[in-house]
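Input:
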Amino acid sequence: MPHARAVRLSRWTLASALTLAMAASAAASAAEPDLAAIRDQVTRQHDVSIKRLQDWIALPSIAAENLNSRQGAEYMARLAREAGFQKVEILDTDGKPGVFATLDAGAAKTVGLYFMYDVKQYDPAEWTSPPLEARLVDKPGLGKVMVGRGAVNQKGPESALLAALHAIRDAHEKVPVNLVLVAEGEEEIGSPHIAQLVHRPEVAAALRDTVGVFMPAASQDAEGAVQVSLGAKGVVELELVASGEKWGRGPAKDVHSSLKAMVDSPAWRLVKALNTLVSEDGNTVTIDGYPKAPAISAGDKAMVAVAAARRNEERVKAQLGVKHWIDDLAWQQANERLVSQPTVNIEGLVGGYTGPGGKTVLPHRAVAKIDMRLVPGMKKDDAVAALKSHLAKRGYGDIEVNVSGGYDPTQTAADAPLVQAQMATLKRLGLDPFFWPRNAGSYPGFVFTDKPLSLASGHFGLGHGGGAHAPDEFLVIEPSNPKVQGYDGAVMSFVEYLYELGK
Amino acid sequence: MPHARAVRLSRWTLASALTLAMAASAAASAAEPDLAAIRDQVTRQHDVSIKRLQDWIALPSIAAENLNSRQGAEYMARLAREAGFQKVEILDTDGKPGVFATLDAGAAKTVGLYFMYDVKQYDPAEWTSPPLEARLVDKPGLGKVMVGRGAVNQKGPESALLAALHAIRDAHEKVPVNLVLVAEGEEEIGSPHIAQLVHRPEVAAALRDTVGVFMPAASQDAEGAVQVSLGAKGVVELELVASGEKWGRGPAKDVHSSLKAMVDSPAWRLVKALNTLVSEDGNTVTIDGYPKAPAISAGDKAMVAVAAARRNEERVKAQLGVKHWIDDLAWQQANERLVSQPTVNIEGLVGGYTGPGGKTVLPHRAVAKIDMRLVPGMKKDDAVAALKSHLAKRGYGDIEVNVSGGYDPTQTAADAPLVQAQMATLKRLGLDPFFWPRNAGSYPGFVFTDKPLSLASGHFGLGHGGGAHAPDEFLVIEPSNPKVQGYDGAVMSFVEYLYELGK
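Output:
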């Protein structure tokens, strides 16, 4: 098939590919999909698809700020309906609403889709391009990119999957699998109500028959390489709050700092408590009774060895602005640490006066925003219980542990059909994918991979982006590197994957 | 004299006092001032004086925010001119401008005045009354108060001194001393350029002949008691900044928090460094080689014993929202600690994500805003040097120590004429003042008390206020407690003090 040789499916190469495809199509059996016709639709619909993504980005839903969640769910429902889902419902939870949708294609197989319609917070002052305008700009070394909040995390890839459904339909082809879509609006606060959505009887029943659940993603790195991840670490997000009120010492409101000589300080108390949570270098968790992480397995080590060799350490360092890995580890060992070690990270510190210059106050309250990443074998609830018990044992029982969200780690076997179809698709598209034991970032795959559903779960999609959770988040639309797929290539990668899954 | 029996000089009692005063005045020698006539002017000018203060509060100068410093200096200069200072100059410094003014009354003695025209930052959202409107509101238990930024710290008392000069002039009396005024606009950032102002040849020359320098203050507590303070602790304000850039480890920008497993954290580094600065309870400075504080002297202890007995511990605790002093000390011992112990206080913590909820970033930078209070015998520069050396020795040499301001402690002898005149005035006004070794709060008196000027320096003024540096800062205008002076009483206290100094 012509597309097997195409390492780049951009709109410019599609025209010539089309010529070949038309010839190929004529020779194809009736049962074979007319991929050339679908690809033609992808090209024709490019501007409409980009506009659809831009319109979506213009409506940010941010659970942490109680911003546009209802509107975001309604918009998600509309996008699903327009893409061909016949049954679309908004499901309320104790938090933000979710969306449940099914597309019955009359196919033999059914595939689950996990979407998020929420995005991370942003401060427009930090962006070089307005975060809601989703402008197309030239990014040196990458090509034409869309800059906007949600461009890569996760509206860009999700919209590309929806564009694939539009293209299949408009090419008068049959969607090769039935689809079950679950979308949530709280991913960025740790999915506190994802189980309420997924375990609803009608949702669970629909998912039970799927070959697994995947989330659309832009999985290529800047050089076009793709890893197939077999899971993700778990995460807990929480605030540690030291306050005069709860402590019974120090002031109940901010007082003049000169009083420090006779009044205790909740801010110092927070520092002293934080100090007990990690080793001197900040890198090893020292919480008493914390769940133990198993040693990295030989299988994981082997996967990391392959992956490390395939990735450009210097490029990653430059992207992150990092000169040395923890303990000056070599690249491969740093990656082993990444996939195998639990962490306690300070996301933010907030206490007393936080504006410009100084202000002579003794704060009555100080907060550390913390995230803890968990590896397989660790449970979110155990980690939180250990933290609370540790603080109590050290005499810091008054420090509040306010968990805002999180979930257990998730893992899927390499031989799961959902995963094998990814490998097959990627190889057919001319890529040389490699396995990755688990993402260090987290997503609530546990709700699919754990009991009672016990499904495979993962991410899939070509394309490249960056800046998730940061200013100037972007998705490459028209890449300068031919090994990287642009937006239309990402759309076609979903077409290919769905057909592979339908086999 | 009639006013000797008046324990309250409010506008309501002034009318009757006036009748007595007119009789007394007729009997007075030509050299005696007509205090009754001055008091009458104070009463008549009440509304104008209040308006003058309100207008001043409407123009906040905040050095930390680069807000209105030039305008504030010009306004200060205008206020001085209108109050009768013949020579008024705005003096530039390397920071914000100061004001230097002299009032030559042809008197035998000259008195120095230290003013600040700047105010502390404020967040209107935290106030129950707009901070720049200086509204008059009823405050339960206190009476009618003015709520506004600068109401007590320090525009209220300073405006009352200016009102005293207006009243003396409009009563056709002679100001009893010559005045030398130095006003700065950087007090709230630690007066980084006060020496540039005070040590200018013309300013130093004018100050050299004064009996000392005082700052107008609302010195009464809520029950009307007055202490005469003999000094103030020194202070250093600084930021400790941990950053990936300076450290050479960790990221150069905020990155995704999942990377904590392979990337070092500047936020943890800050916590670990902070942890070394104070004892486990946060109350004892543990900086290596930090200047030693001398043991509290017998004289200071005796002063504290008297003062503690005069002050209502429960009332102070309620005001501060404090249930226990450090180490559960008794009231007297807590006050001994207040006057004698150096401190390291966290004013603020700022790092990474500080908004609502969480955000999964690994911050590239974290900041602790610190103030350190110094007791006599300690020098600001020694304290900073010890801190830097401590951090370097512990391996934290990359953590920036950015000093924004501060000054040495200041001390004046109890037998200084400036102080003795305070005691005499307060006693004559029917009060029972007591000495206080030094304020735990700081002001740049060192620039007057240290070489080369070696002058006496202090604070003076009746009246009561609160909330300095906090929301709802206030000054009592018409007190419900007859032992507390309102605004007019404060004005008259300055009239009395100036005449006492002129003797």
